[in-house]
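job 3f2a | input accepted
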Amino acid sequence: MTANELSVRRATVEDLAVLRGLWQSERLPGYELEKRLTEFHVVVRPDGLVIGAVGFQVAGAHALVHSLAFTSPALAAEGLPRLWEHLRALAQTQGVARLWAQGPAAAWPKAGFAAATPAQLKKRPAVFGPARGAWHTLALRDEAAVSQAWEKEFAALQEAHQEQAERLRRQAAFWKLLAWSMAALFFFGAAWLLAVLLRSAPRTPRR
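job 3f2a | predicted structure (207 res):
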């Protein structure tokens, strides 16, 4: 079996039984990982059998590759290239600029992960967990350019929100003016009708 024969897809509830076995074999906290099922992607053989899995947690322009597990070292050697290709594509579509992994970098021998420097660790999202232990990282894109792109997108969203708020404010002012105009028209119309009725009413002759 070659890497080209393998496929990678997002994990589903139907994969939980296999995932529990993989997590147990790697002594991973299965109970906690079950709550994060949507982060996991599984490596599947042509016959539909799941042979490996990995978690991919995204936080802004950063992503954590975690909880890697395969049914055997031999299958890991076959599945890792296909899995890595999938993760790179996933990172690109989600605008990820930097990947993080905790533990030995040997799990991804050809990926290019390197030990994170103190300066890099300061940029690591806190949601990825405590900073203790060995952390490895890999820059996929220019972080400054990604940050500028995020800022531009945020500014565009803010501008769109402000335009929508201004449009709603103008609409509210229009309806308020229309309501006041109709109320004034009704008031003057009622006053005119009352005056007409008073003029046309028969007067009682004086004695």
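job 3f2a | The first strand starts at residue 7 and ends at 10.
job 3f2a | closed
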